[in-house]
Design a protein that fits this description.
By secondary structure, this protein is an alpha+beta fold. The protein has helices spanning 49-60, 62-73, 99-113, and strands spanning 18-21, 30-33, 38-41. The protein is built from three helices and three strands; from the N terminus they run βββααα. The longest helix has 15 residues, at 99-113.
């Protein structure tokens, strides 16, 4: 499940999705857009490629993590308690997502950040 944010103001960052590219010709892992625009190049100790790759995965997942956090911290989140049968986790009236769906979105973002998605 891909995290999607509700329509909102135009962002100042490069639109996503962002992709971790481990085979880029620069020799370092890079983060790009779908059309190949560079977002970041991860540099570091030549003998620690695993760390540079982990950094690229984390950067590439930034937009999904932002979207997941926005779901949990939305300004429209009610201050009142959830009704019987609803979870406190990410509870928000009117957005149509269940708590388990919110958790799934967050887990997908974490998996991408860890290079597992």
């Amino acid at each position: 499940m891909m995290a999607t944010a509700a329509p909102e103001q135009k962002t100042k960052h490069t639109p996503g999705p962002w992709i971790a590219d481990m085979r880029h010709g620069s020799g370092n892992p890079v983060v790009t857009t779908e059309n190949g625009w560079w977002i970041a190049e991860t540099c570091g100790p030549i003998d620690n490629r695993a760390e540079r790759e982990a950094n690229a995965y984390l950067i590439a997942a930034a937009l999904e993590m932002l979207a997941a956090l926005k779901l949990f911290t939305s300004a429209s989140m009610s201050e009142s308690r959830p009704t019987r049968g609803e979870s406190f986790i990410g509870w928000q009236k009117g957005d149509g997502l269940t708590a388990s769906e919110r958790v799934a979105i967050a887990r997908t973002a974490v998996a991408k950040a860890e290079g597992r998605a």
